[in-house]
Amino acid sequence: MKITILNGNPDASNVVFDDYLKKLSDALLSDRNETTIFTLRDMDLKYCRGCFGCWVKTPGECVVKDDTRKIRRQYINSDLALFASPVVMGFTSALLKRAHERFIPLIHPYFELVDGEMHHLSRYDKYPLMALLLEKGKDTDEEDMEIISDIYRRDAINFKTSFCFTRVTSDPIEEVANEISGL
Amino acid sequence: MKLAVFNGSPRRESSNTRVLMEHFLNGFMATEENTYEIAYLKDVKDRDTFVSLFQDAEHVILASPLYVDAMPAVVKDFIESLEPLCQREGNPDIGFVVQSGFPEPEHSRYLERYYEKLAKRLGCRYKGTVIRGAGENVRAGPGLMNRGLYKSFYKLGEAFGKTGEFDRKIVASLAKPERLSRLKFRIISIVSNLMYWNRMLKKNNAYDKRFDRPYAAEAKTD
User: What pTM was estimated for this model as a whole?
Assistant: First the structure.
């Protein structure tokens, strides 16, 4: 399985989080998966401007040239995207959100009904599964975890896929790796 | 009453959020002695002034579009900068406005839950979240179509200017319709595809490329 890990840890001094991802990636590799980790804080990553250029000027491509081109290409050709982030103020990091918004070129502006609700059309035949890996903060509670998971579950509808799981960095790495390999 | 408005639209002044809030603020200013300040969260270099504006406010409204099912990244950046103010004595009351491109309010209900929790986390009294769908009509739809919408935002602001609260009835009416009928969906999608997306695609000579897949495995790499 081809796995893209989006590391949304904004804080380079939080080495524990990055280490977890590295070890998870190693465990996945030894189970014959392919993995790519994008450490978002080290990348050139502009904010989405809401210009719709990716839908009406250069369909499928963002008009802003930066590292997200690399990320989008890897993402859309993966089987699973793991959105990884410490929980900051009850949600995934602003850094991860910034990257996520730049995935809009991967879908199409036209509308369709999905379960009676309006959504956009697919641009590609296949989209990666989505999953969350979170590091709980001191103030993170169960309600936060539910809200985050529910928002990503909604997001999976818009990114034409299924949401698989929410895991936390206090879970044993082997367990998370096994869950991913079993997908 | 002193109000601080944080506009979280990445489109800043040319945003639908700005237009809706302008009507709201016109209503708000109908009460004498009311004053307001607006901060555009897109101007990330001003982040320190955002925090002090928040800190000094009595009433705060955070208004933004829905971006991929949640708050825009600039809004999340701002929220993260408020972390030191959690549970501070004297934090302002806070209300939220979320407008989405999708017409149904359901898309924004998840962010609404987040915002209610955020108010609790900050220790701010929660005034509620105003949800409005089909927000792109503000700039794309004919002026006449938006007249009722602007009037509602004016009235919402007017009532807010007197009571410091969102009028529940107006909030409920703005969130309609909860679901689209199949017929209504067909009309909306045909009209928006033809009048909006296709028109812009053609203007940009990109109509023939509208189904392009630049990242498909068979497409050449950079």
Answer: 0.96
